[in-house]
Design brief:
Blueprint: E1 5-10, E2 16-24, E3 29-33, E4 40-46, E5 53-57, E6 60-64, H1 68-78
Antiparallel strand pairs: 1-2, 1-6, 2-3, 3-4, 4-5, 5-6
Amino acid sequence: MNNEKITVRHTETGKTMEVVVYSKRTEAIEVVIGEGLNNVKCVLTPTRNGMAYAGSIMGREIVYERSRDKVKADLEIANPNLRGPRAR
């Protein structure tokens, strides 16, 4: 199984860690932190200015420093058949 991993930063300490991506959309990125029974899901949502994704896990804030436009471009590259809504 080939899991996509992204690097997030813990805001209080500034340390980075790799987490596994559970699902990825432009509106939100769901990540899994930990392995086995000790794993926890976290939803990262875009910040107000759209320059990063932020979420809270067990009272700690983590940030994925990639803009919403870059994530959208990554999704289009990964799945070129994905289209926007159709006109009626």
